[in-house]
Amino acid sequence: MQEDGSAAAGMVLRNHEGSVIFAAYRCIFNCNDALEAELHAIMQGMALVLQHSSLPIVIQSDSSTALAAMTRDSLSRSAYGHLVLEIKRHLHDREFVP
Fold it and tell me: pLDDT, tens digit, for every residue of 35-65?
């Protein structure tokens, strides 16, 4: 994450054999911290997955806090609760493998 609040997110969708289905890169602007950038990256990655695949979803991130938020209510009352809720809405219609 940069001092101006910008960050970059890379996303890779793979099949069950590990072969790449697609890869994408996004710029994220106006983030307060790395956790917010991670949550935005997960949310944008989920939106792409839902468009391109019907496979079960495994989310990988280097942020254990962001990953924990997918299975618990740990961030539901935080400033990032709206992002977590949006990700969970995406997960509602799919099999999610934590």
Answer: 999 999 999 888 888 888 888 888 888 899 9
Of 1.10.357.10, 3.40.1350.10, 3.40.50.11030, 3.30.420.10, the CATH number of 7-97 is 3.30.420.10
What amino acid occupies position 39? L
Tokens 């939106």 belong to 47
Beta-carbon contacts of 14 under 8 Å, excluding residues fewer than 6 positions away, are 20, 21
Ranges of each domain in the chain: 7-97
Which CA distances in Å does 14 have to 8, 27, 53, 75, 96? 20, 21, 10, 28, 15
| Predicted TM-score of the model (pTM) | 0.83
Provide the terminal-to-terminal Cα distance of the chain, rounded to the nearest Å. 25
Confirm if 13 and 34 have CB atoms less than 8 A apart: no
